[in-house]
From TrEMBL:
EC number: 3.2.1.21
Protein name: Beta-glucosidase
Entry-linked Pfam families: Glyco_hydro_1
Keywords for the protein's UniProt record, in alphabetical order: Carbohydrate metabolism, Cellulose degradation, Glycosidase, Hydrolase, Polysaccharide degradation
Protein family membership: Belongs to the glycosyl hydrolase 1 family.
Catalyzed chemical reaction(s): Hydrolysis of terminal, non-reducing beta-D-glucosyl residues with release of beta-D-glucose
InterPro entries: GH, GH_1_N_CS, Glyco_hydro_1, Glyco_hydro_1_beta-glucosidase
Gene3D superfamilies: Glycosidases
Cross-referenced SUPFAM superfamilies: (Trans)glycosidases
Amino acid sequence: MTSFERTFPDGFLWGAATASFQIEGATTEDGRLPSIWDTFCEVEGNVANKDTGDPACDHYHRVDEDVALMSDLGLDVYRFSIAWPRVLPTGTGTVNQPGIDFYDRLVDRLLDHGIRPVATLYHWDLPQALDDRGGWLNRDVAAWFEEYTAVSVGALGDRVKHWTTLNEPWCSSILSYSIGNHAPGHHDTLEGMIAAHHLMLAHGTAVPVIRELCPDGEASITLNPTYVWGPENGDEHDADAVRRADNALNGLFFGPIFHGAYPDGMIEDTAHLTDHAFIQDGDLETISAPLDNLGVNNYFPTRVRAARDGEDGSNPMPGCDGVIELAPQGPLTAMGWEQSPKSHQLIIERSARESGLPIYITENGSAWEDTVSDDGAVHDPERVNYLHEHLGAVADAIEGGTDVRGYFAWSLLDNFEWAYGYDKRFGIIHVDYDTQKRTIKDSGLEYAQIIANEHARTRG
Ligand code: GCO
């Protein structure tokens, strides 16, 4: 039995999400060539314990087992990402058929179990061969992504009807090129802005391809907006710090994709860095291609203030000179992230207003120090509590009139958590990386019960 009593609209979809590099393993198998994350992992200090994309969850060899677990949970939908370096190992040109075959098998197994596949085209594993040609800093990447989209949607679009182009372009640009914590690990504010523009250009270039090759499908993008709070002191400098941070974290993508323009102040706030020549005529029209829905990944809020006189206000995010990020307010998860269901509701509502689209919560979840008990169970009450509180926030947003159509728990499985390697566990299913044994955690059992109750209530 569950103590969770909130209800959701008929047809609300219950899912879980993963990503190729985080779960598949088999990084050198069947023709796959290195991605920028394979390269990034090889550099000492970039990833905890010098962990790599192997073995991850060995999902490449465990599709049947893992899809059966999804079925045991009662999932309606499963969000996964396609590894560009499996499908087009050098990024363009020759298609690697064994790579296509893997996703064929995955999709067919999902459909056999009545689970709808939701495919993310890009979840950060850019072929290294394309990074060697400039990667997201090279405007040609839009054409490269267009080719990759055509291959993937061409191969799977007869069965995959939900396509999201990019996962969290903020991470692929600002976190990866300006802040440097993610591959390729650059530290240049302007590069992050250029990469963001080219990511959005690639997105806008891919949407017509999805429309052509999957005319009965849905096209979306998955963003990771965060609600930005500042001191409630009426200080104009702090208010401007909130504006600048919100532009760099949210408006940088909301603006071009949904309004065909960069957000107010962004161009002026970065005029000292660039003449913005990378924004060419027609780009914003391409970028703002109409979509069917918006994926929202959200875990925590962001708190900022303005630097005080004499304080070091340097900030690698574009337009954020003088913006100081404040410590999160407890209680915190194992990632040190603030748990704020209220901010989750607020950013869902903001995302719907900005986009004018139906919303899917394409990622939400929490990391905790999980252990397998003597009885073989994984008791994770903190993750259950986080799930209840954040599902409650989604229900509040819906009751307030926001069109939210589904929720994907991050993540189905414990997996490779980027710079944290395998140290951080987000799964509702525990993975023993030595034995690859899967154990549904209490949170997974709770999620399954909530799903079963909702299915019974709405589907009879
Ligand atoms: C992200 C990515 C996931 C992460 C998850 C936890 O949102 O950063 O989509 O790959 O693993 O969010 O950080």
